[in-house]
Design a protein that fits this description.
The chain is an alpha+beta fold. The protein has one domain (about 35-245). It contains three helices and eleven strands; from the N terminus they run αααβββββββββββ. An eleven-stranded antiparallel β-sheet has the order 1-2-3-4-5-6-7-8-9-10-11. Strand 2 (about 95-105) and strand 3 form a beta hairpin. The longest helix is centred in the N-terminal third of the chain and has 27 residues, at about 1-30. Residues about 1-30 have low confidence and may be disordered.
């Protein structure tokens, strides 16, 4: 009987140790890259100062506006290549080459939406982070009908590259970012972001320190900011500068 009791105690102790080890592993997987570091990476994928989603949505809706004005027929395909750089004297720097492919989609032979396919490569240096990267995006821009009050964008943005923290130079490595955008509403005719949301997944690795992984959600607030919730921590991101503030 005593041996049985000792065996049960031993099993319980082993279970406690295993649980503690798993908890420590989960807690330490992102120890090399903090929540704030990850938020900076997301901000770099969003802001106009780093050629982020704000720029891509502006490009797509500008072309959509042009297609409406010129009465471009159904099924028309257009390619557009852009070299984009920061303005002289800007506190942040970026340089990107972008290639867009657009197609006009119709319902009952009436232009209804625009398909946007983008590939890009370049680099940026933001408030807290610099990055060299490349990637792609696939978006659908709804709202080509003149009676539609707004443009509405749905799609996916992907980025793959290297990063370097400006706050802690020991933090550098490779990362991948995937942002799925839903209902990103762009007003007409001003083409400003009014609302929308997104889901975010991010992974990467740093030399000698291992891998990291973050997931989160994003809400576009309609006032030039977005609210990022990343692994439970909430930030406000300025969509023009890429600055982030913890709430």
């Amino acid at each position: 009987m005593k041996k049985i009791q000792l065996s049960i105690v031993a099993m319980l102790l082993l279970g406690v140790v295993a649980c503690k080890k798993n908890a420590n592993t989960a807690a330490n997987i992102n120890a090399n890259i903090s929540n704030a570091d990850a938020a900076d990476m997301v901000a770099g994928s969003l802001s106009s100062n780093s050629n982020g989603i704000v720029n891509f949505s502006a490009d797509a809706t500008l072309d959509a506006t042009s297609f409406i004005r010129l009465h471009i027929p159904c099924g028309t395909v257009k390619s557009d290549t852009i070299s984009r750089h920061n303005a002289t004297g800007s506190p942040t720097m970026y340089s990107y080459n972008l290639t867009y492919n657009y197609m006009v989609n119709c319902i009952n032979n009436i232009p209804d939406s625009l398909s946007s396919n983008l590939v890009y490569s370049g680099s940026f240096s933001g408030p807290n982070l610099s990055s060299t990267n490349s990637g792609s995006s696939i978006f659908t821009v709804n709202g080509l009908l003149p009676t539609a009050p707004d443009f509405v964008i749905n799609g996916e943005y992907k980025q793959n590259g290297s990063f370097q923290s400006k706050i802690d130079t020991a933090k550098h490595g490779n990362n991948k970012i995937d942002i799925v955008v839903k209902g990103l509403t762009i007003t007409k005719p001003a083409r400003t972001i009014a609302s929308g949301n997104a889901t975010i997944s991010m992974s990467g690795d740093t030399p000698k320190k291992g891998s990291f992984s973050y997931t989160g959600t994003l809400v576009f607030n309609g006032d030039g900011t977005a609210t990022l919730t990343l692994n439970g921590t909430v930030y406000t991101i300025k969509l023009d500068t890429g600055e982030r503030f913890r709430e």
